[in-house]
Amino acid sequence: MPDASRRSYADLFRTPEFSPLFLSSAANLAAQTVSGLALGTLVYRATHSPLLSALSMFGPALAQVLGATFFLSAADRLPPRATLAGLSAAFAVTTAALALPGLPVWGMLALVLVKGLIASVGGGVRWGLLTEILAKDGYLTGRSLFNMMNGVLQIAGYAAGGVLVTLLSPRLCLLLAAALYATATGVALRLTRRPPRTAGRPSVRATWSANSRLWSARPRRHVYLALWIPNGLVVGCESLYVSYDPRAAGTLFACAALGMLAGDVTVGRLLPVRLRPRLGVPLLVLLATPYLVLFLRPPLPLTAVLVAVASVGFGATLVQQERLLALTPDDLSGHALGLHSAGMLTMQGVAATLAGTVAQVTSPATAMTVMALASLTVTLTLTVVSRRSAPDGGLLPTRAAAAARPRLG
Question: Using an 8 Å Cβ cutoff, are 372 and 289 in contact?
Answer without folding.
Answer: yes
